Amino acid sequence: MTRALLPLLALLLLAAPAHAAEEKQTFFSEPIEVKSYTGEQSYQLLDADGEHAPADPGWITSIKVDVVKKPTAKAKALSIQDVMIHHIVLHSTGAKWSSGANCGGRMFAMGEENQEMPRTGDFGIANETKSGSAPNWFLTHMLMNHRPSHFKVWVRTKITYSDEPKTELTPLWIDTDGCDVDPTYTVDGSGKKGSTDYDRHFWEAPMDGRIIGAQGHLHGGGKYQSLRNMSCDKRELIRSQGYYGFPDHIFYRVRPMLHEPSPISMSRTISETGIPVNEGDRLRLTAAYDNGLPHTRVMSILMGYFLPGEVDGCEEMPDDLDIQDVPDRSRKPYPRFKVPLVAPPDGAFAPFKNAIKVSDYFFNKRRVQIERGEAVTWRFDGSTFHDVSVASGPRGFSSEWIRNGEYTYTPEVKGLYKLYCTLHPGLMSQELKVTR
Fold it and tell me: In whole angstroms, what is the distance from residue 215 CA to residue 110 CA?
């Protein structure tokens, strides 16, 4: 090469368009107002505008989410003592992979256990519609404020993003309620100390492929989740173990205590080879919860990532399973915990006569007495959703979130039931005494 060509080559290199390959990107929700001592449950659209979600199509290779007081990439994530993430779900209903395998576009979920999608091999989620554009995202969130003042916060999503093709993964979502918008149930606590309640949900694999990674989500009282292939000798594919902190962990030191502390971590399984599953295989998701105490409005969700491709029958399990997110120290067995009422009622118990009115931020009868086998009704009439749930008591029960309507429960076990609204635990509490 002659010296005369060197300057020309340098100019051509400088003029060539930059190829970003993989880079870190940060996006923010619209501001969210979280009232004091309450849980804020809401939804919002995240436009593909480069601020709320990626503006250009590409491949997502990792996801991590937190909550901040300022919408900046360097802002410090809020502590659970300020605003706790009860759960966050990112949806991409317009993505080309959106299907029943992921409940129509659910691509990421996290709870108090602080789940994330780690970078794995050369895999990625295609952030692209069938027409080739970047899809809008959708955010579902429930945040809990432990402070006496309101907070304005933003959900911050950090991803690594590539404009180079990756081996495309399809998000996988399996829960106990089959894609319900509020997939919760109640463990009634009718067992002996140390006993276990097993909730099982069956799911049919929609295609051949391999599970590259999966991690569970449980609430307080949850022990583990297990995914088995009932079509291949009932073999266990995934086990996501719940790990609990010691009494000095922030989950147990936060004040006021608005709900039962969750596991501090759920184990995640990763395999670059992939766990084989055939189209039509019957998979069973089992959630194991403590049944020595009641646990209301609990969840069992397994979020995974699936590599579509031909599988030849019941192939052997891969030998590269990597179990991640196992804390250095944790408490065993599950620590029994009774949720306190933040604002316990006082005064005399009144006999139940008419339906208890539930309106915005109050029960009109705060201490009620009934006999065992007698039905009690709550009548909801508010501008926002509320529920009635057992914080602690002889048995667990819970209504759905109701704005206008009724809920009736007939207790069969005597004792004192401490009740609250799980959305507004610092504001709404009640006691029900069941006699005879």
Answer: 10
Q: Which residue has the tokens 């069973």?
A: 284
Q: Report the pLDDT averaged over residues 393-421.
A: 97
Burial 30-50 (b: 16+ CB within 10 A, else e): eebebeebbbbbeebebebee
Among residues 116, 114, 156, which one has the least CA distance to residue 139? Answer: 156
Give 38-49 pLDDT, tens digit per residue. Answer: 988 899 999 999
Nearest to 360 by CA among 428, 268, 409: 428
- Asked if residue 213 lies in contact with residue 295, where contact means CB atoms within 8 angstroms, the answer is no
pTM, to two decimals: 0.93
Q: 94-97, long-range: CB within 8 Å, 24+ apart, which pairs?
A: 94/129, 94/135, 94/136, 95/125, 95/126, 95/127, 95/128, 95/129, 95/135, 96/126, 96/128, 96/129, 96/130, 97/125, 97/126, 97/168, 97/170, 97/171
SS3 of residue 7 by DSSP: helix
Q: How far apart are CA 11 and CA 6, in angstroms?
A: 9
The per-residue pLDDT for range 206-248, each reduced to its tens digit, is 999 999 999 999 999 999 999 999 999 999 999 999 999 999 9
- Residue 289 corresponds to which tokens in the numbers above? 């919860």
CA atoms lying within 13 Å on the CB side of residue 355: 12
**DSSP one-letter code for 244:** B
Mean pLDDT along residues 73-95: 96
> Residue ranges of the alpha helices (H) in 176-328?
250-253
3 state DSSP class of 162: strand
**Greatest pairwise CA separation for the chain in angstroms:** 102
Neighbouring residues of 384: CB distance < 8 A, sequence distance ≥ 6 = 360, 403, 423
List the one residue out of 292, 288, 296 whose CA is nearest residue 266: 288
Q: Which pairs with CB-CB distance under 8 Å and at least 24 residues apart come from 70-78?
A: 70/154, 71/28, 71/31, 71/154, 71/156, 73/26, 73/156, 73/158, 75/156, 77/156, 78/151, 78/153
Q: Which two tokens stand for residue 364?
A: 């009109």
Asked if 248 and 331 count as a contact pair (C-beta separation under 8 A), the reply is no
Strand pairing partners for 229?
235, 283
CA–CA dist 243, 121 (Å, integer): 27
Cis before residue 340, ω within 30 degrees of 0? no
**Please, what is the average pLDDT of the chain?**
93
List pLDDT tens digits, range 15-35: 333 345 899 999 999 999 999
